[in-house]
Amino acid sequence: MRQIDALKSPRFSQISTFARLPTCGDERPEAIFMGIPFDDATTYRPGARFGPMGVRDGSRLLRPYNPFQKVYPLDELNVCDGGDVDVIPGHIEETMERIEETLTEYMKRSTLFLVGGDHSITLPILRTVKRVHGKVNLIHFDSHYDFWDSHWGKKYDHGTWLRRSLEEGLLNRVIQIGIRGSLFSHEDVEDGKRLGISSFTIREVKLDLNRVIQEISTLKGPTYISFDIDVVDPAFAPGTGTPEVGGLSSFEALEIIRSLNVQLVGFDVVEISPPYDVSELTSMLGANIIYEAMSLKARLKNGETS
Ligand SMILES: [Mn+2]
């Protein structure tokens, strides 16, 4: 009997849902849950290194069945917990190498659902994706562009990973969702166009969501999703490093994920900083975002498209 059967009890445990997942062994699960607790590349509020712990804790109320996508994601994907990547605090380049080394074998046998950590971790994740799957499309939920060429003259941090990913030829098409907030310059907007990225501001998402969904539906082939929790309004998700007011509601974020129909090869949720959280709101949302993404994978595996 899988340990996960314990979830069917209506009695909630102090031990969270994700923490009750079986530890990954030699089996070939269709999905693996893993943490990457690295936050040395944050530029404002730190604490995302506690994200994996927060999301595991925030998963306590997750029950087995998702009625919106009509799946039992954890059971249907035979999800196991791969633990946390052994990162090296203070050393981003060595950490990136270690993330790649650790994820490669897992990714060859399964779809990874990863919890950061700050957004710098997505570069080594995408390097691994390229190695295993070739070039992929990227759906990038964020309030920030994250394609700056450098920060403080440095190439690697949580605001430059997308520029590096494009330079390294890791990506096909890129669609950004939820961009907002003040910028360093009007040139930032132009840069996105020059880089060939389709960026949808929060205004476009709020006023014409159908157009955004339509654009996403034109993506063909393997697709990776990176979800920065700061795409959600800080009123719903205060526990994050670089909050921007005026964002998506939790409901909108979940609805967009539910509406997707893509060939999902991996998923991350990043920038959850539990020390800045209130009443576990952000950690609970992070857990539900991962659950919804796993449900998407399970639904599409069943051949259901919407
Ligand atoms: Mn962001």
UniProtKB/TrEMBL annotation:
<dbReference type="InterPro" id="IPR020855">
    <property type="entry name" value="Ureohydrolase_Mn_BS"/>
</dbReference>
<dbReference type="GO" id="GO:0046872">
    <property type="term" value="F:metal ion binding"/>
</dbReference>
<comment type="similarity">
    <text>Belongs to the arginase family. Agmatinase subfamily.</text>
</comment>
<dbReference type="InterPro" id="IPR005925">
    <property type="entry name" value="Agmatinase-rel"/>
</dbReference>
<feature type="binding site">
    <location>
        <position position="228"/>
    </location>
    <ligand>
        <name>Mn(2+)</name>
    </ligand>
</feature>
<keyword id="KW-0378">Hydrolase</keyword>
<feature type="binding site">
    <location>
        <position position="119"/>
    </location>
    <ligand>
        <name>Mn(2+)</name>
    </ligand>
</feature>
<dbReference type="GO" id="GO:0033389">
    <property type="term" value="P:putrescine biosynthetic process from arginine, via agmatine"/>
</dbReference>
<feature type="binding site">
    <location>
        <position position="142"/>
    </location>
    <ligand>
        <name>Mn(2+)</name>
    </ligand>
</feature>
<feature type="binding site">
    <location>
        <position position="144"/>
    </location>
    <ligand>
        <name>Mn(2+)</name>
    </ligand>
</feature>
<keyword id="KW-0464">Manganese</keyword>
<dbReference type="GO" id="GO:0008783">
    <property type="term" value="F:agmatinase activity"/>
</dbReference>
<dbReference type="InterPro" id="IPR006035">
    <property type="entry name" value="Ureohydrolase"/>
</dbReference>
<feature type="binding site">
    <location>
        <position position="146"/>
    </location>
    <ligand>
        <name>Mn(2+)</name>
    </ligand>
</feature>
<keyword id="KW-0479">Metal-binding</keyword>
<dbReference type="InterPro" id="IPR023696">
    <property type="entry name" value="Ureohydrolase_dom_sf"/>
</dbReference>
<protein>
    <submittedName>
        <fullName>Agmatinase</fullName>
    </submittedName>
</protein>
<dbReference type="Pfam" id="PF00491">
    <property type="entry name" value="Arginase"/>
</dbReference>
<feature type="binding site">
    <location>
        <position position="230"/>
    </location>
    <ligand>
        <name>Mn(2+)</name>
    </ligand>
</feature>
